[in-house]
Design a protein that fits this description.
It holds the Pfam family LIP1. By secondary structure, the chain is α/β, with parallel strands linked by helices. The protein has 10 helices and 19 strands. It is elongated and about 80 Å long.
């Protein structure tokens, strides 16, 4: 084994020992770049027969006295037990064509995050289907089936992801979805923002979801959901699209938070389906042509379901006043009503005359809190941790749900707290002065 790599492995093992309690903490993710993971696996392949044996196994007796063996044993043991992994590509070290990344070392992952790494380059992903609860993929996916059916380079078949509850697939060039969503029976959070979607009709295959983010796409029609999903949906984020009407929204009558900002909603009649939403607590429609009318706020409040007067409502970031509560429901359309064919035709024709206001501005506020903005997604490789082959990050989910008191999950945000283990690159001329530290 190369002496520089051997020294690097020893340094990594030392860092792992110093942070052993964090490596086994479900609140933390291990951060690795593809170069570091490749070097670790190459070290394993030189000494360990991991391809043929599920347990740790030494190849030849002459290797038993190798000074790297105890360190590799410890690293291998910890990698099998960690709960979360964030894998990213270093600047200038993108994967060569047809090269794969094996996840065979990780047996117990519950959270996997990939940054600028093609899903099709992953091997052993299918072995994680029984344990993964959260998947985050930024700029590495072009077809959902590559992830949920083929499992990357495994070329697997259709099997359910029973434990998966969160899929954040923002900033991918998907354009459309597919039936692989039917393999996610317990998914609660689905983020498809910034995916250039023009067709989301395949969402009808999704069995159930509580939070759905479709923001910053090119959608003209609100997708229909399965009957179970329409019942379970609590938060719908659909800002920065091309919606001229919201036909079908009346079926999603358990929605509590709705973001329709920066679309092409032009007539107050276009928002009549909100009258079928008795639990609405947060409503955002700013940036639509309808808001050019100075009285739009009063007009929309009168279309709310009368039941919303019984709880606190925030409309375009401003809570309803006492006088506005008196107006709630005055012009509400009966629940279950849909557009007449004539009105639907009129609303659709108007969409060609309007364009979204600031269609690419990032969403802010209570509802939409993207994992990465477009700029951050492009520059993610320039993050300071790029100089650190391995580190730990306390990384809670970007969106989580809690109980609201009425039995329904509510959404809250969590702040991110990070801790890093910095390990000097073996190519560094100052290798003798390796600095390994744990820093808040």
């Amino acid at each position: 084994m190369d002496d520089a790599i051997l020294q690097w492995v020893c340094s990594l093992a030392t860092a792992f020992r110093q942070s052993a309690h964090l490596l086994l903490d479900q609140q933390y993710k291990l951060l690795l770049d593809t170069w570091s993971l490749g070097e670790i696996q190459e070290a394993f392949s030189l000494i360990l027969e991991i391809e043929q044996h599920t347990n740790f196994h030494v190849l030849h007796p002459n290797h038993r006295q190798h000074s790297a063996i105890p360190h590799l044993q410890f690293i291998y043991d910890r990698l099998q037990k960690i709960f979360g992994l964030r894998l990213w590509a270093k600047v200038g070290q993108s994967l060569p064509q047809n090269e794969t990344i094996s996840l065979r070392c990780f047996r117990n992952l519950q959270a996997l995050e990939l940054l600028h790494i093609p899903v099709t380059s992953l091997k052993a992903l299918q072995t994680l289907r029984p344990t993964l609860r959260s998947v985050i993929i930024v700029k590495g996916l072009t077809r959902l089936s590559d992830l949920f059916i083929r499992c990357g380079a495994d070329k697997a078949g259709e099997f359910a992801w029973e434990q998966l509850q969160e899929a954040v697939l923002a900033h991918n060039s998907l354009y459309s979805l597919d039936h692989s969503l039917s393999l996610l029976p317990n998914l609660k959070i689905l983020d498809l923002s910034h995916c250039e979607l023009e067709d989301a009709s395949a969402l009808e295959y999704l069995p159930t979801v509580s939070l759905l983010d479709l923001s910053h796409n090119q959608l003209r029609l609100l997708p229909r959901l399965s009957p179970t999903a329409t019942y379970s949906l609590i938060v719908l984020i659909a800002n920065n699209n091309l919606f001229s009407h919201i036909s079908g929204l009346h079926e999603m009558n358990n929605i509590e938070e709705l973001d329709l900002r920066d679309n092409v909603l032009s007539l107050k009649e276009a928002l009549s389906p909100i009258g079928a939403l008795p639990h609405i607590r947060v409503l955002k429609i700013s940036g639509n042509p309808i808001t050019w009318d100075l009285n739009y706020r009063s007009q929309i409040i009168r279309q709310l379901n009368p039941a919303t007067a019984n709880h606190k409502v925030v409309f375009d970031d401003v809570p309803l006043t006492g006088q506005e509560y008196d107006e709630v429901g005055m012009h509400a359309v009966p629940a279950g009503s849909s557009y007449s064919p004539e009105l639907l035709s009129s609303l659709s024709s108007l969409s060609s005359l309007c364009s979204p206001v600031n269609p690419i501005s990032p969403a802010h506020g209570l509802i939409s809190q993207p994992l990465y903005s477009p700029e951050e997604a492009d520059l993610i490789q320039l993050d300071p941790v790029d100089s650190q082959p391995a580190s730990l990050v306390n990384d809670s989910a970007p969106v989580s749900l809690k109980n609201s008191g009425n039995g329904q999950p509510r959404r809250k945000s969590k702040k991110k707290r990070t801790r890093h283990i910095a390990i000097t690159d073996p190519d560094n001329e100052d290798m003798d002065n390796d600095s390994i530290h744990l820093a808040d």
